[in-house]
Each structure stands twice: as C-alpha cells, then as structure tokens.
Specification:
Blueprint: H1 6-17, H2 22-26, H3 38-46, H4 54-62, E1 69-70, E2 73-74, H5 84-91, H6 96-101, E3 104-109, E4 114-118, E5 124-127, E6 137-140, H7 143-158, H8 162-172, H9 177-196
Antiparallel strand pairs: 1-2, 3-4, 4-5, 5-6
Helix pairs in contact: 1-7, 7-8, 7-9, 8-9
C-alpha cells in the first residue's frame, strides 16, 4: 500500500458513496472550490498569524475543507466558501492564548484528537485531552501529507486493509505520532463493530 494522491482520494470517495443520499454524501465529498484569497487575510488577521505556510494556503483555497471530514475527523462544518469555522474553533478554544503563543492553530476536530497546524512550517501535530501543547505529537510534515494519509486511512477502512495502512504509516511517521494513525483506523473499526451489534 502507498499513500493515495488527492485525486485518488476523491475517486475513492466517489466510488464508495455512489448511490447514497446526496445529503449524507455532502460531508464526505472533497471537491475543488474557489475560496477568495481575502479569506486567508481574514484568517491571519483574526488569529494574529504573521506567517502562514504556503502549502496550507494553496490547499485551503483549492478544496472545500469547510464542510468536510475523514472518518471521525471534521475539518469544518457548514462553511463551504470561507474560513469562519477555523477562526471560531480557535477563538473558542479554552487555551487559545497558548496556541497563539506557540504559532499553532486548530484545523480539525475528532475523536480522540484535535489536529493542529504549525503556521510557519506547515507541520501537523495532534493533542488529546490528556496531552499538553508542549507534548504535542507530530503526525505529518505538511497539510498535503496529512490529507493523503487520512484519505488513505479512510480507504483502508472501507477496504478492510487497516493493518496494511498501519504498516505504511510506520514507515512514514516517527515515534508517538503512530498513536494517532492507529487510533484513526481503530476507532472506525470499533464504530463498525458497535453498529453491527446494534
């Protein structure tokens, strides 16, 4: 198994959701949009960001992250054409001042982790309710790598190839970050088991 490209992730989602209710598919569909550049300026001004990684900017302007999620992780909600969800999620965070001081912003929520972007470098970290920002775990070197890995993890769950996915991520991710990737596919399998048992 290899990391899927974003194009392959979009195709896998289209294939998996074929024939489903369009409203259900909405939050699972990754599609290209035209978010205006002024939204980046808004994000930077509202969250007091001096430097924002160009790879993250390019991806945010190109795809509809504001109403999209992978498995149990949501990148936004009901916010197709702007970055208001990201701003609100960060400003409402109980320790926003510490986030800001460390040059981090929340870009996705899930179970059990919150996903953070290091604004200047583009590196991606996660924390949970028991992990401080100082002990955050590196899970991807860029936003694009995060998306490719999460999309590949979702595909692996749909095709029952979670073990192959975990082995792949063990070659890509060092140290504690593997806790996140094991959890990503493990939580999905647990959810499926609970659903099957009623």
């Amino acid at each position: 198994m290899e990391l899927l490209s974003i194009k392959e992730i979009i195709q896998s989602i289209e294939e998996e959701t074929k024939g489903l209710d369009p409203e259900l598919v909405e939050e699972m569909s990754l599609r290209e949009v035209n978010i205006p550049l002024k939204e980046i300026e808004y994000l930077k001004a509202e969250l007091n960001i001096n430097a924002l990684n160009q790879g993250f900017i390019d991806s945010v302007l190109k795809y509809g992250w504001g109403n999209f999620g992978f498995l149990s992780y949501q990148f936004g909600y009901d916010d197709d054409n702007s970055l208001h969800w990201i701003v609100e999620r960060n400003v409402d965070y109980e320790d926003y001042s510490t986030l800001n001081k460390n040059g981090l912003i929340i870009i996705a929520n899930g179970d059990p982790y919150t996903i953070l972007l290091e604004c200047a470098t583009g590196r991606i970290y996660c924390i949970d309710s028991e992990t401080s920002l100082e002990h955050r775990m590196l899970i991807a070197n860029s936003f694009e790598q995060l998306v490719q890995a999460m999309g590949t993890g979702q595909y692996a769950c749909w095709k029952e190839k979670e073990t192959e996915f975990v082995q792949l991520m063990a070659h890509i991710t060092d140290g504690e970050g593997m806790l996140f990737w094991k959890s990503l596919v493990g939580c999905y399998r647990l959810f499926c088991a609970k659903k099957a048992n009623g």
